[in-house]
Amino acid sequence: GWLGGPPLFHQERGHPRLRMRHAPFAVSIVERDEWMLCMRQAINEQVDDAALNAKLQRMFSEMADHMINTDGSRAGVAAPL
Question: How many folded domains does the chain comprise?
């Protein structure tokens, strides 16, 4: 459903609550950028279709931005922004 298909996961298991599940961990811009580096590489290696590649890059980038829960000034402590 996240990419526009039917909301099967949501119907069967409810909202995935990714931000809540990541709350115990400090996620700053640094962690977001490191994770996105890995995702970009994986997508580029596996997805040849330019339009799908661009859509996946954009969707994962938006999700990664949403996971940020600290400004990184207090290492190891997650604080909502």
Answer: 1
